Amino acid sequence: MTELLVAKGLAKAFGPTNALVDASMSVRAGELVAVMGPSGSGKSTLLHCLAGILKPDAGSVTYRDAELSAMPDSERSALRRNDFGFVFQFGQLVPELTFLENVALPLRLGGMRRAEAERSAKVWMDLLEVGDIASKRPGEASGGQGQRVAVARALATEPKVLFADEPTGALDSLNGERVLRLLFDAARQTGAAVVLVTHEPRVAAYADREVVVRDGRTQDVELVA
Amino acid sequence: MTDALRRWFGDLSLGVRLAAAGGRGSAVRLAWITIGIGLGVAALLTAASAGSVLDSHEQRTRARIIGAAPDADRPVPGVSPLYSSAVFTEFAGRRFGGEMLFADGATPPKVPGVEVLPKPGEIVLSPALRDLLASPEGTLLLPRFPQRVTGILGDEGLSGPWELHFYVGVERAELPGTSPAYSVGVPPERLYFDPLLSSLVVIASVVLLIPVVVFVAGTARLSASARDRRLAALRLIGADAGQVRRIVAGESLAGALVGLVAGVVFFVVGRDLVDSVSLFGMSIYGKDIRPSPALALLVFLVVPVIAVGTALVALRRTLIEPLGVSRGARRAPRRLWWRLLPILAGVALLAGQHRGMASQPQTALVVIGVVLVLVGLPMVLPWLLERCVRRSRGGPLSWQLAMRRMGAHGGASWRIVGGFAALLAGGIAVQALLLTSDSIHRDESWTPTADRDLAWTTTADSESARRLAERLRTMPGVRRAVSYDVVHAQQPPHLNGPVELIVAPCPALRELTPIQNCAEGDVFSFPEPNGEIADLPPGTEFVLSTAPEGRLSWRQPERVRPIARPAFHAPWSGAGLLITPAAVGQGVPQLQHLVAVRLGEDDPLALEAIRNEIGLTRPLSFSARATPVSDSERTYTAIRRLVTVGSVAALAVAAGGLLVVAFEHVRHRRRQFAVLSATGVPYSTLAWSVLWQNAVPVVLGTGAALACGLGLATLVLNTTPTPQRYDWEAIGLTGAAAVLAVLLATVMTLPQLRRAMRSEGLRTE
Ligand SMILES: Nc1ncnc2c1ncn2[C@@H]1O[C@H](COP(=O)(O)OP(=O)(O)OP(=O)(O)O)[C@@H](O)[C@H]1O
Ligand SMILES: [Mg+2]
């Protein structure tokens, strides 16, 4: 399989804290990579570097052979808009907008007309079984529903890579399972690769591959399913 | 190209959508932005109309002056002459007037607002005067207007809807010495603007602009954390920096445009109101309040530019990265030196214009100085507040909570308070300026103590003077009344004080002063108030007339007997002679027929009755009372009241902004409050912490504003040669309003706080 994203020798420090020391990993098209590790080990930092949200102090991240840190902000924004999708633990939805508007947002930012964007957003919401709460706002629904909306939004642009940082961390295990299953199914349908940060080995079991982060260093664990 | 444009438009409209979205919290915020900017815009438009108001007022009063144009006395074919003389009367502390008219012919010149000129015994009234006469308060005035009302003055003949004015028809004989006029009105002239007044208008505009800036800047920061989160979310899903900027611009543009529309509505509604309600004794026609087109355009441009500009500047400071501000670096502490620059520069400019140092104070520089100080104040205040907050250690838990929270998220409320302080300071400065300029127009340089009860009036001839004195003598409130004639004569050159020549028969002279033996042909002499006798040797010549037909003079006879000074004489008049008619002889040309009255104790009712007895066409003058200003001279007082009301209103709006901050604060920290309350922190502690958080900035801001405003007023007044006075009442009022605003803002957030502390606070997205 072709390597979509390749990170080599990443290092990142926040003041005196070394979040990443020497981290390397790759993501191939359509695969599901689980990133595991103890709290504070640098998982989120690694994910942010991979997605071009954070600039590493050292090392390189290439997406389809293009160096992320060499791109101007507008190009990286376009990349996030078109090729990447994000689901975080919470807080990534715009609280002022309805769920439908939230899902349609990346499409509209990409220049799509409002009506068209909302029509295709509705399709994704139906797919994630939240079509019935389209006109509610983030404060007005359960956490599981909110996360499913977030997944719908992340997938609406049909990204090549979906980054998920503990997307079910704030949910009970039953709800979490449901959200993850929907996420995986939808990602498989669009052929998106998924980089999933999680604490739970049970979740990691779904993954094609597992990357373990410890004190800012990566250990690649190839799972042979 | 069109695609790029469409995306631009898409980003902007997304911003507009975001401004309008978000349930109750943002609806309240948008409402406040609308009201805040709207009031600011309305006030700016009003300030931009100051020129048209003063101009119209001037034109209206000029257009009705009879016979004052340079060639008004040159006969015009087809126009019959009009004789007139201005009259003034007073009622209940209000001075107003009109004209006595006699039209000699059927085609007199047109007097503005008068359909048909009143004939003798008729009168034309302004609507306000008609209403006053018909009202219960006007019953006292009614006897002074026995004439038949034949018309009501139209708008074009009045300076304002509430002006008391009249035209009364009289016989030709009642207008002695007037010349015929063939035209009415004086050609319009470029208005002379008092330089102090024009700088006031500019300063007032700047002061009014400040709340607009503060509002826009403050509301941009109101929900800074929410906005940052929102924008971070947008960045995360791929909005680039330019898009975020356009979205923010759209957001603030929406508020500014809605505010502009609201402002125009407020302005138009307020303008219509002016015609139907008399505000603060102002009498202005709504149609005269026309913003200068250039200034109005400037307002329409400046307000959105300020809105978008401040939002973008604020955006530059809060770095919007995809991960939001939660993971951002610690903000650097505020630096003082550059914040102090505007104030220092302003003070230096004003001090440089100090009279004595500058030969001629330049208004423009004074205005720039004031603006610099007012702009600098909100820049220094956040620094001051931050210093105070960081210094604070200890105190009760509620105080600590407030200090920590302010240290972490002070921005929005500090900015509001900063603008609030600038507004207050500007208001105080303008107050002081207005009060000072007011005293130019109302001469209060001498405060009379004695002889306040002495008054006089004139009549057409001695006989009517005698009869009037007789009638007045019987009236309540009149202690004494006498009539006499005064001869106007040229003073002999060797005298240094004026000598008055009073002519009356013996009985009337005895009314003036005790005289033992008086016979026709006698002459008496009375001294100056200090007892000095004038140096008048027998044979002193008084020239009575230098008319070309023949010089007429009167020589003082041999025998002049000294007598006591008449009790009727004002202290400021000099010595004089009392002359019996036989001693003057025939043919004295210029006699003034006077009735002098000594009143009892102050009794406004009796006074109005006396004025009624004297009649409309003769004023009752006082020797030692300041004349009240007439309606048309009240502009300064009215503007000053307007400034007080304006600053209180603006304070209320600023308080509203504070309220929004407090609301947002509680709303966004619902979870924290809920957690604190769940861990056992009592409600009262949290309530007190909210109070502290509102009160500390406002108290500091008000203190700074008072100091700054008074200092500013002192500096500005130092550039003019006028004495300084402060309107402590108004200053106290504005200060009290500030304190009230804090209490109100706090009390109104309490229910929300209580709600947040219940369980539902724990549930947030
Ligand atoms: N913006 C930041 N400023 C300072 N320190 C940071 C910042 N972001 C991360 N860190 C630090 O870097 C280290 C790694 O953080 P990171 O969030 O990547 O860990 P994590 O593995 O995701 O932890 P968790 O499982 O708890 O989410 C931690 O010690 C954290 O405190
Ligand atoms: Mg993490």
Describe the structure.
The complex is a heterodimer of chains A (225) and B (765). In chain A, helix 3 (99-109) packs across helix 4, helix 4 (114-127) crosses helix 5 (143-156) and helix 5 (143-156) runs parallel beside helix 6 (173-190). Chain A is globular, with a radius of gyration of 17 Å. The mean pLDDT of chain A is 87. The two termini of chain A are 16 Å apart. Chain A has 225 residues and is of the alpha/beta class. In chain A, the strands form 2 sheets. A 6-stranded mixed sheet of chain A has the order 6-7-8-3-9-10, sandwiched between helices. Chain A has 7 helices and 10 strands. Chain B is an alpha/beta fold and 765 residues long. Chain B has 3 domains: 3-56 and 192-444 and 631-762, no CATH class; 66-174, no CATH class; 454-622, no CATH class. The longest helix of chain B has 36 residues, at 241-276. The model of chain B is unreliable at 325-330, 439-449 and 761-765 (pLDDT under 50). Chain A binds chain B through residues 48, 53-54, 73-74, 77-82, 84-86, 90-97, 101, 105-106, 108-111, 137-139, 146, 153, and chain B through 3, 6-7, 10-11, 14, 17-18, 21-23, 26, 226, 229-230, 233-243, 321-324, 764-765.
Strand order of the largest sheet of chain B: 12-9-13-8-7-14-6-15
The number of strands of chain A is: 10
Mean pLDDT of chain B: 76
Structural class determined from secondary elements of chain A:
alpha/beta
Radius of gyration of chain A, CA atoms, in whole angstroms: 17 Å
**Total count of helical runs of at least 4 residues of chain B:** 20
Rg of chain B over CA atoms, rounded to whole Å, is: 35 Å
Q: Which molecules are bound besides the chains?
A: adenosine-5'-triphosphate, magnesium ion
The low-confidence runs of chain A, each spanning 5 or more residues with pLDDT under 50, are: none
**What's the oligomerization state?**
heterodimer
How much helix is in the residues of chain A? 25-40%
Provide the residue-averaged pLDDT of chain A.
87
Classify the beta-strand content of chain A into a percent band: 25-35%
- The general outline of chain A is globular
Poorly predicted residue ranges of chain B: 325-330, 439-449, 761-765
Largest sheet of chain B: 8 strands, mixed
End-to-end distance of chain A: 16 Å
Q: What count of structural domains of chain B?
A: 3
